[in-house]
Amino acid sequence: MLLDILILISALLLIFNGIRNGAIFSLIHLLSIPVGIAVVFFFGPQLVAFLSSNGLAATPVIVYIALFLGAVLLLHILGTVIRGLIQSIPAAGVVDLLVGGALGLVESWLLWLFLLMLLGGFLLALQNKDPQLAALHLQTEDYLPWRDFYNRMLQGSYFVRINSLFLHTLPPMP
Predict the structure, then answer these.
(1) Structure confidence by residue, pLDDT tens digits, 65-78
(2) CA angle 99–4–98, rounded 5-degree value
(3) Digit-coded pLDDT (tens) for 69-107
(4) Contact 3/157 with Cβ under 8 angstroms?
(5) Contact (Cβ atoms closer than 8 angstroms) between residue 154 and residue 167
(6) pTM for this one?
(7) DSSP assignment string, 120-153
(8) Whose C-alpha in 2, 14, 26, 31 is 20 to 30 A from the C-alpha of 58?
(9) Residue 84 falls within a domain, yes or no?
(10) Under a CB-based contact definition with an 8 Å cutoff, are residues 89 and 139 in contact?
(11) Helix, strand and coil in the chain, % to nearest 5
């Protein structure tokens, strides 16, 4: 029940945010981080090499941060311009706001689904003493309260029932 209340509150906040920003700006905002990472991945090494070859000492981390922030900023400016154009068209502006609210709902659903799947997968791997986690020197016993809390949160949740294909309570400890 508590999980459903938390999901409902976050869904309402993201729906409100989607209505406030509109669909186009929300989509651009959502995509700006992956696009920024891609820009750094594809252009970062070349820019560092270019700056170094021209006698400019450039720390790669600073170049990567500048590229990332620059890409995100450009996308936000583009989103603001497009949003202004769409808002100037009466019918399109209303549709943009309503679709933005729907995107906020989808964003909230995906966020909680991913978070719970990630946490459940981590706790299950820890419980099964996954060899990949051995290097972290994590003790299963230290995470028993987390496991129990996770299982209590999932039991009786409508969100978990709807997403039962993806979300499950963890099995008892062996």
Answers:
(1) 999 999 999 999 99
(2) 10
(3) 999 999 999 988 988 888 888 888 889 999 999 999 999
(4) yes
(5) yes
(6) 0.73
(7) HHHHHHHHTT-HHHHTTT--GGGGHHHHHHHHHH
(8) 31
(9) yes
(10) no
(11) 80, 0, 20
